[in-house]
Specification:
Radius of gyration: 42 Å
Number of strands: 14
Bound molecules: zinc ion
Distance between the termini: 98 Å
Shape: elongated
Length: 351
């Protein structure tokens, strides 16, 4: 069977350490001492820990075959290639892999001390356990509340009843919006200055930033290989610095028509529908401060009494507004929840 060691595996591979829990011998070698040389007890992979930098024992020409397999019958760790336990002969095809120590890192130039197995086990104990499977009750309640809310909104929107209403009044409104020619400040790259700009001020300044590769930040990582050895790797990432980019920026003024004020008129059917008087206040010219009409809008409303006898109104087109007389009947839909008039459903009763 051909086994490919991991890249660099033959170089930076060292022995994990373990302590014999039966006779107290410390710092036994994870690969060399599968059994305690003092009392013969077998190694427990869970007890493996990383040595300090000074105590690292290199493993020359290490061929990595995989994480040890734990014999399901006698808990002896066996090499990954073994098919039967070297201690009791049990088949290892259903054997679990040996527990791995979590990897640890050191910044460049920083040295690593002997790992404390006690601290690691303590940390594993205090780590919060993953929540039990199944939906948390709070989440279920939130989802139910959301669904109920959506249901209520849909009911409010679509549940209507049709009734007859009669016109109780009329209203119209017209609006003329005025604009004035005003100096407006602007700023852009100097290539993009509008042709009619004046008072141009040109500056050389920071217009952006470039991210420039600046070097590498590396850390040394120790990785438990699960066979009594660990390997060391350098993990590097490129660092960047931000470099300002300079360019010419122009600030300037341009004369533009800007909205200033609105003129309004309005009334019911007793007042003639007219545009608001633009009168003398509107200066028709093309100089700074001159005004012109920017836009016009007009709206016409029919007014009804809703079931609570409140006055409500709906916008209609001018023709319908003109031809409709007071007390004319309409069918209309009202929402069942808020008793609100749905203007889009309004239909004049013919005849
Ligand atoms: Zn021992
Ligand atoms: Zn066994």
């Amino acid at each position: 069977m051909q086994v490919n060691p991991r890249p660099g595996a033959s170089d930076n591979v060292y022995e994990m350490l373990w302590d014999c829990e039966f006779c107290g011998t410390k710092k036994l070698l994870g690969k060399t001492h599968r059994f305690c040389p003092n009392c013969g007890a077998q190694q427990d992979p869970k007890a493996r820990y990383f040595p300090s930098d000074e105590e690292k024992v290199a493993v020359k020409d290490h061929v990595y075959v995989g994480v040890d397999k734990m014999c399901p019958a006698c808990q002896t760790p066996n090499a990954a290639l073994a098919q039967f336990c070297t201690n009791c002969g049990s088949p290892l095809d259903k054997a679990a892999a040996a527990t791995l120590a979590p990897e640890r890192q050191a910044a460049e130039g920083q040295s690593l001390g002997t790992e404390s197995l006690k601290d690691r086990q303590q940390a594993a104990l205090t780590k919060p356990k993953p929540k039990a499977k199944g939906f948390p009750l709070a989440l279920v309640l939130v989802v139910i509340a959301l669904l109920a809310g959506v249901g209520f909104c849909l009911y409010t929107a679509f549940s209507v009843e049709t009734t007859t209403v009669s016109v109780a009044g009329f209203r119209w409104e017209r609006q003329v919006s005025l604009e004035a020619l005003q100096p407006v400040p602007g700023s852009s790259s100097c290539d993009l200055v509008p042709l009619d700009a004046y008072g141009i001020n040109r500056r050389y300044e920071v217009v952006g930033y470039n991210s420039v590769p600046d070097g590498q930040r590396c850390e040394r990582v120790q990785i438990d290989q699960g066979d009594g050895t660990f390997r060391e790797e350098n993990r590097c990432e490129t660092t960047y610095r931000s470099e300002p980019v300079y360019g010419y920026v122009c600030s300037y003024l341009v004369n533009r028509w800007m909205p200033t004020r609105n003129l309004e008129s309005g009334g019911d059917k007793s007042t003639p529908v007219t545009w608001p008087a633009e009168n003398q206040s509107v200066l028709r010219c093309d100089l700074l401060g001159c005004e012109r009409v920017g836009g016009r809008s007009e709206r016409y409303f029919l007014q009804f009494r809703d079931p609570q006898n409140e006055l409500v109104e709906c916008p209609v087109d001018r023709a319908l507004w003109d031809e409709t007389s007071i007390e004319r009947g309409f069918t209309a839909e009202f929402g069942t929840v808020f008793r609100d008039l749905r203007c889009s459903s309004l239909e004049p009763i013919s005849g």
